[in-house]
Write a structure and sequence with these properties.
This protein has about 325 residues and is an all-alpha fold. Helices cover about 75% and strands about 0% of the residues. It contains twelve helices and no strands. Helix 2 packs antiparallel against helix 5 and helix 11 runs antiparallel to helix 12. The radius of gyration is 22 Å and the shape is globular.
Amino acid sequence: MAAIFSFLNFIPLFNKAFYPTEIDDYVGSEVSNTYLFQAFIAPIIISLIPGMDLLFDIFELDSIATLQTQMLRILNKNASFKATEDKSESVYKETRLSIPERIFFLVGVLCLSIVAFPSYIDAPKDQSIFIYNAFTNSNTILIICPILSFFSRCSTSFTPVLTLACGMLICVGCFLSSLAPIWGAGTDTSNNIITASSILIDIAAAIYVYACSVAAYTHYLSAKDASNNEDSLASQDIMSEKKFRANVVMAHMFATGIDIVLNAVWYWYVQGLSSYVLGICIYITVGSIAITYLIEFRVRRTEVSASLVSSSFVQFHTHILYTLYLAYVLTYLLL
């Protein structure tokens, strides 16, 4: 659904009567603004390491995979390595975004940086608004829908109906936003479509907040019940794994909640934002994206540590990599 609507956002670009009216595009008139340019470059900067990590997962060679397995067996020094590996697969793999979800998310992040490229800057102003709308609306779809897909299999609060309804409202709302400029900025038809788009995004945000609130309440009750029970060590290990899984899901809910709530407000004022306010909104979005990347790195580190519980060397290096990426993102955002 996300892929289809992301393509549909570009329908206005196929219109031969390309924008007969003059459009006052606040983005097109501010492309020389250094602050705004840096804001649109930020998604690319923070996506370099996660992008390389994704490529390694996609193009993993059999010979490398075999060598890696043998090395893990040697490091683990445990005859029951296969059982440990299966355990880590069942416990931690499902708390990570799948490869298709990570691909869609990464493409969505990169869509946010279109304004920073010369091909956009050099485009005629009457076309830049359509290009900007298409890519930014695709960004909204592609960074929210993959997380909703993740919730649909990892959170009981996001039922199939709620997930589909929230995703569909996001997709249709963004699609309408892409179509609105066809009728010219300021016309009644364009304003009505923009209003309808904003209302659909707000309804999707309300559904999302409702599902997250139910999840938070359920998590609180389960944590309270667990603290009142005295279990064996084995049961405590199981509870610890469940707690880790729940914390990962809650962290993703928080990170995506920042973006979806921002969009619920942004779409109402998108016609009148100054370049400075737009830059602030972009940086808020970049912050939520960075949190999502850090969560994925944290799950990867825990997954490796669980598989190599006896190897302090590998645990140390995974911890170092996680810390370095965290320092890398924070340094860029602060500077």
